[in-house]
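In the design runs reported in the main text, the only information available to the sequence generator was the tokenized backbone. The following block is the verbatim input for one such run; it is reproduced so that readers can re-run the procedure and compare outputs position by position.
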């Protein structure tokens, strides 16, 4: 006998379908794979939790289906304003939902969504400010950088492999959670080679800034400035022009050839009296956030001066 499933009296626009009561149901299998990070040929990804589901439904991206559990049905009222009438709303038990969820304490609501397929042109809307993640392996860092990019006005993000090390999928479960939905709104070009990306950036006349760490023997901005004229702190860079920031691997940083090919190198100074241990000590996401914030500050100031 199928288990009894109770739902609150409130109903979304869609007519409620019969509850899914078998773990072998094709929809549950699809949600289980997508929420586990598997991307099929169609590119659909799974998002879980009311905040991400609301972001997905409000993103304008194609949403294939919404899955809610008994306890998760209470969240339907929150997402009703962005829930299109053509989105299938599927119901299941709390136990079966827990079996497909990727989180330890699931909120009982998930969706299948198709992220946009961005091209380089989509990332360079005026004024162009692109962040390129090169071999950033931690999905938490990837998601946080994407979130900072949207928050500080970047026009897009790109991910590239470095020396055989790929960047974590920005649409994977952990990265999506860390981005708090930004990955569903910000144009992202995933998996492009760094050589092709740099060639296209130069074609669009975008300045390329490589985020680097000063050498371990340097302990002050004065000493660092003696190394080279193109190694600068963020406030000495011109962020008002079309620009791209290259952020490297958490441990190895950027490949040497990318640093050499950049138009300038930028570092994040630390407080006076502390040993400079490199941009990795801040965490790749923290360093990227500092640089993106300075870019926003300069651009906002320039707009104020023009008005």
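Verbatim output:
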């Amino acid at each position: 006998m199928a288990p009894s499933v109770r739902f609150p009296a409130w109903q979304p626009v869609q007519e409620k379908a019969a509850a899914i009561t078998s773990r072998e149901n094709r929809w549950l299998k699809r949600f289980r794979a997508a929420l586990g990070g598997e991307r099929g040929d169609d590119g659909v990804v799974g998002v879980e939790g009311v905040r991400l589901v609301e972001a997905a439904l409000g993103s304008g991206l194609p949403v294939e289906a919404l899955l809610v559990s008994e306890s998760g049905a209470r969240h339907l009222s929150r997402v009703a304003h962005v829930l299109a009438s053509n989105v299938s709303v599927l119901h299941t038990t709390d136990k079966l939902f827990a079996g497909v969820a990727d989180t330890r304490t699931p909120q009982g609501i998930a969706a299948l969504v198709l992220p946009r397929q961005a091209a380089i042109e989509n990332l360079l809307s005026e004024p162009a400010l692109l962040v390129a993640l090169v071999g950033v392996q931690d999905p938490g860092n990837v998601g946080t950088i994407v979130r900072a990019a949207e928050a500080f006005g970047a026009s897009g993000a790109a991910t590239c492999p470095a020396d055989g090390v790929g960047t974590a999928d920005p649409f994977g479960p952990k990265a999506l959670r860390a981005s708090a939905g930004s990955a569903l709104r910000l144009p992202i070009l995933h998996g492009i080679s760094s050589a092709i990306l740099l060639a296209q950036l130069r074609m669009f006349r975008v300045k390329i800034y490589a985020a680097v760490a000063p050498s371990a023997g340097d302990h002050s901005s004065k000493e660092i400035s003696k190394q080279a004229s193109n190694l600068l702190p963020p406030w000495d860079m011109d962020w008002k022009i079309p620009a791209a920031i290259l952020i490297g691997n958490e441990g190895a940083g950027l490949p040497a050839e990318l640093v050499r090919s950049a138009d300038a190198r930028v570092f994040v100074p630390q407080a006076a009296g502390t040993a400079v241990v490199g941009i990795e000590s801040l965490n790749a996401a923290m360093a990227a956030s500092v640089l993106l914030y300075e870019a926003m500050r300069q651009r906002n100031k320039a707009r104020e001066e023009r008005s």
